[in-house]
Design a protein that fits this description.
Number of domains: 1
CATH class: Alpha Beta
Structural class: alpha/beta
Shape: globular
Distance between the termini: 31 Å
Length: 303
């Protein structure tokens, strides 16, 4: 068994906000796995996966996890700034500059919408990705409860009125309390700045997702979609639609819910390493001048 080698990183976004990150493995490698945590989580969410991948591959690849701004150990944005999905996509692009070799993105749940935003705003960079793994993800954001779709938008509007700052702060705290007490017990606790929490909830309630143009531009990238059979937020048929749009491999994990990276880490690890293997072989084919016929239809996984 190879003991994971953890290194803490502090990455400066282009507006000066410091993003906390962890590198597992060597500083430079032939490939880097970069993990995008879901809405209101942090990089600790990925611990079972990064440990499993490190052991499975004997530390031969680099892995990067990071906290999005206002989450975990990352700095919160300035009080006057609203955190948008486009802003989070800029941060992801900055994090990716610390990756080496072939880069495979791994995202869970609403992290897929951040990958979509990145592919929209940084189309050329996204096209250069070596692989993509989406876990418990759908073509569009999961349907949030009504209070999570309306209350954050109202709180953002209230911020514009200095006389209502106390009311806004109370509303942000109350929303955080409600979310903390609905946390699923197998998930680690998360630290999220109250204002950032409101901003990302408002951003993820918008109508964006893997629509035709973005999906078509990413179909050349080796991809996999892994779904939970008993996922109440992203039913398997939604994950299948995402796989069809990307021409990705897909698999449905029996008995898994929405948090399969935590409850079924071995299955997620296997999917990630298989996609990485495919990405590396594709890269070697291009490097050696070998050509293969591109895929013309979705690749199916074991159902």
């Amino acid at each position: 068994m190879t003991t994971p080698d953890f290194h803490a990183l502090s990455i400066a976004a282009d507006d000066g906000v410091r993003l906390a990150a962890t590198r597992v493995g060597r500083p430079t490698a032939a490939a880097t796995l970069v993990y995008v945590h879901p809405l209101l989580r942090e990089r600790r969410f990925w611990a079972p996966i990064t440990t499993g991948v490190h052991e499975h591959l004997c530390g031969a690849v680099t892995q990067l996890t990071y906290d999005q701004r206002g989450h975990g150990d990352s700095q919160a944005p300035h009080r006057g700034e609203v955190t948008t999905v486009a802003r989070l996509a800029e941060d992801l692009d900055t994090v990716l500059t610390h990756a080496s070799g072939s880069v495979v993105l791994v995202a869970h749940s609403t992290g897929a919408q951040l990958v979509h935003a990145y592919a929209t705003t940084h189309r050329e960079h996204a096209a250069a990705l070596a692989g993509l793994v989406l876990l418990n993800a759908a073509p569009e954001p999961p349907a949030l409860p009504r209070y999570l779709r309306t209350w954050p938008q109202r709180l953002i509007r209230l911020r514009r009125h200095p006389a209502l700052h106390a009311l806004t702060a109370a509303g942000e705290a109350a929303l955080g309390y409600r979310l903390d007490h609905t946390r699923r017990p197998h998930l680690p606790p998360s630290t999220v700045d109250p204002r950032a929490r409101v901003d990302v909830l408002a951003a993820h309630s918008g109508g964006f997702g893997f629509f035709t143009g973005v999906a078509e531009a990413m179909r050349h990238i080796p991809s996999a979609v892994l779904a939970g059979e008993q996922d109440p937020l992203v039913p398997p048929q939604h994950a299948v639609r995402l796989a069809d749009a990307l021409w990705a491999d897909y698999d449905i994990v029996a008995g898994a819910g929405h948090d399969l990276p935590r409850t079924h880490p071995a299955r997620a690890t296997d999917t990630i390493t298989c996609t990485l293997d495919h990405a590396l072989r594709t890269h070697l084919d291009h490097a050696s001048g070998s050509t293969r016929t591109p895929a013309t239809e979705p690749r199916r996984g074991v159902r």
